[in-house]
Amino acid sequence: MTRIGIIRHGSTPWNKEGRAQGSSDISLDQAGIADAYKVKL
């Protein structure tokens, strides 16, 4: 059986500032990096 998971995007500095994202490639902040390691895809 195929498993499908839903993963939300990681945290970035712009998230905390309330800035719109999508047209620029913004790096993850430390919390976002930690979350990415927890997912381990």
Structure in words:
This protein is mainly α. It has one domain (1-40). It is 37% helix and 0% strand. It contains two helices and no strands. It has helices at 13-17, 30-39. It is elongated and about 40 Å long.
Features:
41 residues; 2 helices; mainly alpha
Briefly characterize the structure:
The chain is mainly α. The chain has two helices and no strands. It has one domain (1-40).
CA(first)-CA(last) distance? 18 Å
Helical proportion, percent range? 25-40%
Total DSSP helices: 2
- Taking pLDDT < 50 over at least 5 consecutive residues as the criterion, the unreliable ranges are none
Number of domains: 1
Structural shape: elongated
Main beta sheet, described? none
Q: Radius of gyration in whole Å, from Cα? A: 12 Å
The average pLDDT value, as a whole number, equals 89
Task: Quickly give the structural class.
Answer: mainly alpha
* Share of β-strand residues: under 5%
Q: What is the total tally of β strands?
A: 0
